[in-house]
Amino acid sequence: MIENIRLSFQGIWSHKMRSFLTMLGIIIGIAAIIAIVSTITGTNEQIKQNLVGSGTNAVKVKLYQGGYELDPSYESIPSSIPVLTDTVREQITALEEVETVSFYRSRSEYDAVYHTNIALNGGQVIGTDTQYMSVYNYRLTQGRGFDAQDYAQGRKVVLLDTAAVETLFQQEDPIGKTIEIRQEPFVVIGVFEQARAYQPVIQTEEEYYMYMNNGQAGVVLLPDTVWPVIYRYDEPQSVVVKARSTDDMTQAGKKTAEILNTNAGLAAAEESASEGGENGTSQLLYKNEDLLDQAKQLQDLSSATNQLLVWIASISLLVGGIGVMNIMLVSVTERTREIGLKKALGAKKSRILAQFLTEAAVLTSLGGFLGIALGMVLARIIALMTQTMTVISVGAILVSVIFSVVIGLVFGLLPSIKAANLSPIEALRYE
After folding, report:
1. What is the mean pLDDT of the chain?
2. What's the confidence (pLDDT) of residue 20?
3. Residue 396 belongs to what domain range?
4. Residue finishing a domain among 178, 210, 243
5. Residues 228 and 79 in one domain
6. Second label for 7, Cα 20 to 30 Å away, from 29, 96, 360, 361?
7. Contacting residues for 244 by C-beta, under 8 A, at least 6 apart
8. pTM for the whole thing?
9. Coil, strand, or helix at residue 79?
10. CA distances to 205, 384, 403, 407 from 29, in Å
11. Which residues pair with 287 in a beta bridge?
């Protein structure tokens, strides 16, 4: 085998231009496939990051009624929904997909949060427990966070995110200042932001509204024990869990929703809704916000379109394989006397067959490696020109190498058989 490989490289080197032109179809085909697959993989990863974000892996589980999220601002509070207890928290925390869990209540406010005469229009007010900051990977940039006394004594204190600070205080230091929430005074004790800042790649207006949540103005956090001061004490709680990995988000959300529905006696409604029953769409039900599933749907749409390009690029591999067969037939014709001499000296058919098959496989493998290198360069160029992410697929590289070898074996088989079946006498007579 080693000798056959050495002879193959020797033959390729002795006809450099012819060998390169023969490999060109393989090089272009492999390069195109590597570049397309890398772009598809990068686009799918970009979609996941744009929707899910980077580093938080947070999944919200909220109460729905009639297929829509229950809004206590406009709807009556259902009496059948119990307050979430430490027992429920322990059940959720015990899930293998869940790292941290937090209970919270939230309202979207348009004319209820003020500092002097400046309003936080479109901001969110969230009543949090002690785990909320860690679930979202928030870190303090100014002041302090909530402590045990803030919760125990129901202190009217708040944390603001940087967007809320910019809106309400502009250039003013917010720490120690007072804001009003529904005409109740609250003291600002800290400012927070995402520990790992992430901004999605946005190229169209539609993507802006999809990824940026319609331009949220800011977030105000307050201890959940003070929530009844400005809102109703018996409002249903929502849950946010931090999954151990991005891929665990869907299962973490689904299992959390199952626990909440069972705890609230809504398991029958959940089963009815999953089966498409009439009652399932009108009853109360906890549901998880499955951003990963939304990302997968967009990924499937993107991949279905781009896979057509892969098939088109594969045609050049077929053309390249035909070129390999053609040049190998020429090589057999040119080396007829050599084949006859080897057979006269006792070389078996299998030896001749293996020599030409090896030469064809080496030729296409070399083209495959050159195609992979060119494909990686093309992927990088595409990324720079389109400002999109590309991810080099190790699987695609391995498949390309194997595929190029297979092409050499398949399309080199006919010329190799022709060489192996040559009659030694006729071969030695060949001029």
Report:
1. 78
2. 82
3. 2-50+297-429
4. 243
5. yes
6. 29
7. 57, 96, 97, 98, 99, 252
8. 0.59
9. coil
10. 36, 22, 11, 12
11. 62
